[in-house]
From TrEMBL, chain A:
Gene source species: Paenibacillus sabinae T27
InterPro entries: ATPase_BadF, ATPase_NBD, CoA_E_activase_dom, Dehydratase_Activator_Redct
Cofactor(s) required, per the database record: [4Fe-4S] cluster
Location of the ATPase BadF/BadG/BcrA/BcrD type domain: 22-274
Protein name: Putative CoA-substrate-specific enzyme activase
Automatic annotation (TrEMBL), chain B:
Family, as annotated: Belongs to the FldB/FldC dehydratase alpha/beta subunit family.
UniProt organism field: Paenibacillus sabinae T27
Pfam families xref list: HGD-D
Named cofactor requirement(s): [4Fe-4S] cluster
Matches recorded under InterPro entries: FldB/FldC_alpha/beta
Protein name, entry field: Dehydratase
GO molecular function ontology, one term from the record: hydro-lyase activity
Amino acid sequence: MSDLKEIIDPGLLSTVTGDIAVGLDLGSRTGKGVLLAGGKLYTAITPTGVFMQETADKLLDKLLKQSRVARENIAYIVGTGYGRIALNFGVTGHKIVTEISCHAMGSHYLNAKVRSIVDIGGQDSKAIRVNPATGKVIEFIMNDKCAAGTGRFLEKVAHLLDLTLEQLGAEALKADAPADVSSQCVVFAESEVISLKAKGVSAANIAAGIHLATARRVRNLVNRIGLEPDLVFSGGVSNNPGMTHALEELLGHPISKVKLDTIFAGALGAAIFAQKAASSTDEELGDYALLKTK
Amino acid sequence: MSTVLTSEAQEQLNHIRYSRDTVHAHSPAIQKLFNLVIDYVDDAEKAGKNGTKVIWAGVPWAMPLIYSAGAIPVAFSEVGRISGQEAITVSEDYYQMPAETCSMVKATAGEWHLRKQAGTSITRIFGSSSGCEPYNLAWEVMKKEGFDVYTSDVVYRAPGVEGERYEELVRYFVDEIHDFNEWLTGSREIDKESLHREIVRKNYLMRRMREIMDLRLQHPFHVKSLGIMYLMNGLTHYFGKPEEYTEVLDALVEELSGLETDEAERQRAIPLIWTGGSGQEFGIYETIDDAGGSLLGFVSSPYTRDFPEDIDPVESVARFQLQSQMAGASIYRRHVIEQQVDRIQARGLILYGYLGCSFGSVTREIYRDYFHNKGIPSINLEGTFQVGAPSGQLLTRIKAFIEMLS
């Protein structure tokens, strides 16, 4: 639990209403939740299960327990992420918004100057350009049909190196000569990692090489839409220090420090959308027409 | 033979029925359209069995000529709707086509193979040559399978080709049309009276389509995305039944003309242009509708200008093609997209192509850049030619794109 004024960009604090709002981001690997109530921000995280609704309900329970808010007092819920499609919250007002819009809005509320976002999740990566006046998406690009440049790819490599995903990023920072990993395809990269291991290349150098290879893939995405400061790194991979380092090195641009773990950026954006939906009529939504009910 | 559908294609058929019976329950015209869609290939097969000349045809310019010869064209686009992974497996395993081969080529070749095994009555294929290397490979394979395959050369109009060079292209094209007629009917002589009648019919239908597209600006959600996609597809081949397709367009004009304008609906619609092939992953269309998008512009089958009626009909076919978006260079299609952007005040473009089509992907990038610089955002989608569920990521991209425009 944190005070909103410690987390939200001071320039936007006045736009946060008193409505109790929930954002749930059902990612392919983890579900994240944010609840806004009484000037406080509550977060919850849980592994994504087979049934999305169960994961969403579990997140909601955690948030309600933490905040001591009664379920019936929630004004609005916005669901987002890979598992958003099937979500239903009965009588509570709710809407589904894509993670692309939510990551943009969440990052905007963490740093109102943000113009570019790199979002790396479990199964895809995205580069997003944001309008700093509204938090709306101006342009985005997303990899699909391929696990390269995603958390799943890093997970696979961690497994090959006998490391946990959490250890992989830290290990990469110990590298003295990052290995040259040319393959972007997960299948080929696996063979490459095995052959590097056979040559006696250290786990740290292989890990660093893998992070650089993944970052190159993401850089290609970013280059397609152009990079403008400030830059926020969000999504499940954003708290991997090895990836942060590789991205900063390849993009030649620092990643903005914000006051919330940006794994929650999508859920925060969803909660902000939920507040806007709760406090506005369709006619009042203006820039946020995507929340219209009719 | 009656088409035997794989479970995925059956699911697609159910989607069409759902669109007919539920989504378009308010529109008898679109319901009739979907009936034509559903019966197209099976009825063509029956017609073939009963002695009518029926051919697989993947060349839009030839459709009026095929009808003028008393034959029925079955468009390649329909092969996509009835074929699934089984057809792809045939192409990849039996014909050893590399996995990265264009999904349209794999789906059509595989489906024809399966249909041949099942005793199809449609054993003649008319395609185009020199435009697409993977299809040239497919033509050779189909000949070996016992199909009678004919390909006509692609007459390509490069940017800025005018004057005598343009007239040369017309003459060459006219010659190609006669060659095709010889394959189709056994004679280079074309029944010009009959072709003229088909041109007059086509012009009438294109005018009707223009009326429909104008009326849709006032009623953007009356015909949903899947409906408009099939309406446009039908403008090329009439689903094998020109009179019935004409009735559909007439009825739809009447339907739309009788509606009261709903200003709120008009304001809510996000005007989009679809350009490129037809997506067979129908979930894409549903997502566009659900997100508040409306395909008010469509750049697929030409309909914005008429065939000349006061010249030799064969020459008219050639000139129409060479002055349309299908003339050759991508700039000709781009002009039409630009006109549509202005006409509907488009907020975004959907550029759609098939996986593995390198030609299409280059063109889409050219359009993306060009329109981006003019302030028109676009989304570049690649899907399979054969049926299949769209990936969640593809649907996310579409929904996010429309959210971005809202």
